[in-house]
Amino acid sequence: MRAIGVDVGGTFTDLALWDDERGALAVFKLPSVSHDPARGILDGLQTLVAREGVLPEALTFIAHGTTVATNALLEGKGARTGLLTTRGFRDLLEIARQKRPHLYDLQADKPPPLVPRFLRREVRERLAWDGTIVEKLSLDDVKEALDALQAEDVEALAVCFLYSFVDPTHERLVAAEIRARFPQAFVSLSSEVSPEFREYERLSTTVINAYLGPLVSRYLQRFGDDVGKLGIRHAPYVNQSNGGIISVTAAAEQPVRTLLSGPSAGVMGAAWVSAAAGIASIITFDMGGTSTDVARVEDGRPVIGAQRTIAGYPVRIPSLEIETVGAGGGSIAWVDSGGALRVGPHSVGAHPGPACYGRGGTAPTVTDANVVLGRLSSTQLLDGQMTLRRELAEEALAALAAQLGASPIEAARGVLSVVQTNMLGAIRVVSVRKGYDPRAYTLVAFGGAGPLHAAALARDLGIQRVLVPPAPGILCALGLLVAPLRLDLVRTRVALLEAVASGEPAEVFEELEQQAAAWLDHEAVPLSKRRHARAFDMRYVGQNFELTVAEPAGTSPVDAAALHRAFLREHERVYGYAAPDEPVQIVALRLTAFADRELPPMPVLPAGATADPGEARTGERAVYFEETRDFVTTPIYRRERLRAGHRLVGPAIVEQMDSTTVVPGGQEAWVDERANLVILTGSA
Q1: Which residues make Cβ contacts (< 8 Å) with residue 94, sequence separation at least 6?
Q2: Contact call for residues 508 and 491 (beta carbons, < 8 A)
Q3: What does the DSSP 8-state code read for residue 449?
Q4: Mind listing the pLDDT tens digit for each residue in 119-135?
Q5: Which of 41, 542, 600, 613: disulfide with 18, CB 3.0–4.6 Å?
Q6: What is the pLDDT of residues 369-426, one digit of tens each?
Q7: First CA to last CA distance, the chain
Q8: Angle of helix 408-430 relative to helix 450-461, nearest 10 degrees?
Q9: Phi/psi class of residue 554: alpha, beta or left (left: φ > 0; alpha: ψ in -120 to 50)?
């Protein structure tokens, strides 16, 4: 197996190549090309395979984590989209829900609807809740609506009828009409994208899919073609928000599934590395050049939610529960109208980059603050591929300091304090706010900037252990090599738990498994690599939100009593109580199909002769630490020279091609046999 994972971030594009024949992992990092992400990928692929002496046709697998869909939604650069919906529901996209994101902010702006009102058309059709026809679909209305939308030059069409999740026939008839009359339009059907109840969330998800469709499908088509032109014979895969991969063709049809493509790959990589180290429950901390993503992994499984909000729009698609903040190495430090220091969310990106890059950037950034304080090398990054200029970082911080009435060193300290406060908030969202104590977890730090800040964050949170993987700056790319093929299917069925005895859930699961089998057949997955996981969305009668409960092991066909007990346990865990005598409803049935892939073996690092890491020491420099409130002469170590069993006593700096790790004073670090750097923070 020769496999490549490619992750495109806002600042850098990362590549990881696993070569089975040599038993070696090769990594490469280059600046992203923001206006043409595919160009950066192709440049990286050509450079990496040439450097490693691998023929492109010898590659057996390539997967891509992309931010194209995310950026298009955040920046409002999607397609001109039209909507066909049931008569009377034209304005649902704007009515939305009564819930307000900022309850006491009277000036809070709602995001504009992705389909303006004049591009939303109603048609006569209506099903009852059980799928019986109340009013037949009017094809005359459909034709009239399509003619009007075609005249408005729409590129994409979303179709969302009220009860199409029960019976999709009307939506499919509309799709056939669109393809006959409007073949160039991208079509998004709610019954295919999000076949669940709750009409607003389903409508929002379907519209987002249509809005992103033309842009993402063109990008992926070009990416697939260009990969083929390089001589790579196998069609590439794309990472999804749920942490699994799908074919380029499937991703082009449902781009909404790729909204968290990049960050989810990092979580999968962190879960794999941690499991190999014998650590089951972790909080992932991925800090790159533009943003920071944090997530929680329980017992080796990343936590997944059925719905999330991105850029103010609800998305009803299974995705990893990742919290993102605009805090990265390239985040800009600025002073607001009240004179307070702020950091982010705006970033300088790869071009021009932080001031210290010497590419014309003048805005002070987190990276500049780290250079001025000695935490980052003041001369180079990426093993000399990128030259840094400390004097430019000092000039940028001096301008900020003048606005604050402080010294450049104080300004740099303030920048790091503010950005770390922002990141602490994100970690608390995935832990404390959900009822989990972060002190019970290991913090896994990755991304180019994650290891720079992780030890200080862990100390402030009371986390006792930080794990820094062998190639932290490339972990998202590596995560693509270990992610399984994955398909999430759902069917809404609202019924009392006692309905399990009727056999209907078994029939629904059989239908879902047939659908999953057809998909796995299309992907040519051997039977030995296939597996399924069943789950139920459940709630007490009268509740408005549900909990997803995995089918109890060993209870197929479904055992109502065992399922009830599992629901009570989950309800008590989440809400702190359970009511055994209250009636329980099943709301939806979920099936997840996996195709497990051959994983690259985790290498074993040779042991050092002693615990003394002196052989890895390359020098020393003055580094500012908050513990001493002064610069301290700090030893510098080279990561690849460290051996298993080596122990470092803080303060210490560990440098490598893709990242830099800071070990503050009062903390210790040691290297395990899997080449992970494990920092013990000393927190009680």
Answers
A1: 113, 117
A2: yes
A3: S
A4: 999 999 999 999 999 99
A5: 600
A6: 999 999 999 888 877 778 899 999 999 999 999 999 999 999 999 999 999 999 999 9
A7: 45
A8: 70
A9: left
